[in-house]
């Protein structure tokens, strides 16, 4: 069972672990969060320093409205929504991105988030070659053969066995 909370340091450490051996010219991580660091065993700034040592740039994105937002709570009468303040540790996210040479963004809507991803895409241009293999097996031949024999049978029956009398 996944615990409730935001483990920013653990997220960065996992990303570093995956990217550290990459041969890419540009190693980039996008940290998307809607809260403050309140879980995990690794301090986010320590994890950011480790990312910097491996040459990984972190772009941080704080997601959520400014002010309050509805949050679901389970009650004996079902799920109810209650307005709670949106807490994003923007200072920490700015420190993380600043340490690694990235940039901090704030997304307050879906459109704004799409614009942020487009901006990051423009800043980070590394050619990625993906090799994919696809094994295709044609299955139409048997059905086409059956259809051909059915048409041949219909033609033969109509010409020789089920002839129309004049």
Structure description:
The protein has a domain of 116 residues: von Willebrand factor, type A domain (Rossmann fold, 3-Layer(aba) Sandwich), CATH 3.40.50.410. It has 166 residues and is α/β, with parallel strands linked by helices. The radius of gyration is 29 Å and the shape is elongated. The N and C termini lie far apart (81 Å). The strands form two sheets. A three-stranded parallel β-sheet has the order 1-2-5, with helices on both faces. Strands 3-4 form a two-stranded antiparallel sheet. Helices cover 42% and strands 21% of the residues. It contains five helices and five strands; from the N terminus they run αβαβββαβαα.
Q: What is the average of the pLDDT values?
A: 86
Strand content is 15-25%
Write out the strand line-up for the largest beta sheet, numbering strands in chain order: 1-2-5
**Helix and strand run:** HEHEEEHEHH
Q: In total, how many beta strands?
A: 5
The rounded Rg comes to 29 Å
Q: What is the straight-line distance between the termini?
A: 81 Å
CATH architectural designation of the domain at 8-123: 3-Layer(aba) Sandwich
Question: How many DSSP H or I helices?
Answer: 5
CATH class bucket of the domain at 8-123: Alpha Beta
Structural class: alpha/beta
What level of helicity do the residues show? 40-55%
CATH superfamily of the domain at 8-123: von Willebrand factor, type A domain
Largest sheet: 3 strands, parallel
Low-confidence stretches: none
Assign an overall shape. Answer: elongated
> What would the CATH topology of the domain at 8-123 be?
Rossmann fold
């Amino acid at each position: 069972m996944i615990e409730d909370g935001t483990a920013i340091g653990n997220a960065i450490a996992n990303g570093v672990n995956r990217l550290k051996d990459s041969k890419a010219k540009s190693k980039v991580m996008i940290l998307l969060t809607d809260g403050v660091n309140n879980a995990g065993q690794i301090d986010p700034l320590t994890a950011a320093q480790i990312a910097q040592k491996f040459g990984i740039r972190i772009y941080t994105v704080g997601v959520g409205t400014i002010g309050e937002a509805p949050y679901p709570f389970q009650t004996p009468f079902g799920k109810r929504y209650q307005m709670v303040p949106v807490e994003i540790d923007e200072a920490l996210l700015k420190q993380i991105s600043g340490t690694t040479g990235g940039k901090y963004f704030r997304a307050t809507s879906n459109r704004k988030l799409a614009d942020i991803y487009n901006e990051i895409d423009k800043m980070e241009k590394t050619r990625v070659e993906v090799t994919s293999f696809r094994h295709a097996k044609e299955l139409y031949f048997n059905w086409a053969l059956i259809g051909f024999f059915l048409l041949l049978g219909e033609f033969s029956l109509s010409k020789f066995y089920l002839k129309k009398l004049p």
